[in-house]
Amino acid sequence: MADKVICIIGTGPGIGLSAARKFGQKGYAVALVARNEEKLSHYADQLKEEGIEAIAVQGNVLANESIRKAVQHTYDTFGRIDAMLYNAFTFRNELPSEMDPIEFASDLQVDVIGALAAYKAVLPFLQEGSSILFTGGGLGVKPMKKFTSVSVGKAAIRALALAIHQELKGQNIYAGTLTINGFVKENTHFSPDHIAEKLVEMTEKQDQPEWTFDRK
């Protein structure tokens, strides 16, 4: 069994899967959490073929209790959790005047309220030296009108991460956000693999609460 365990909430084919792979290569067992269990099982099988211990855990970030159960299942399976990555977010192309308030509230549930639920769920299982990571975005610092929803969501996740860092600073538990100042795309500087490498580095150094991933 692996010496460390990471729970990745919001595992898709981009940053989530790349992070699972990079952490797995560092000796972590990985719990992949998302709504689509069939896709998750496929990702877990890929990782297992690469020699990485992985499980697929169905969890819906639109439902806080579902998040709690996914984290609990991770702990029940491995007996520990050493790191959590919250990587869930929504993305829609709408001006503020075009946005529906109910849909916006749903977006915020995914972008930041689910992150708070995940933090509260994982905190009882963390020991000294553990890490809590949040994927942020440059839109949270420099919003764009046509991407208002995710701009607000990333601003909120940044504030939440920094507040959690302040709360945990004296407990030797690291909390940090990676602000990605570009659009994630394969075979570019902003590739999921490059970003995942930075997330691993954050857990290793555990120095500052906000890291940025900029253009070269």
Automatic annotation (TrEMBL):
Top-level taxonomic group: Bacteria
Signal peptide: none
A Pfam match: adh_short
Name this polypeptide is given: Short-chain dehydrogenase
Source organism of this protein record: Jeotgalibacillus malaysiensis
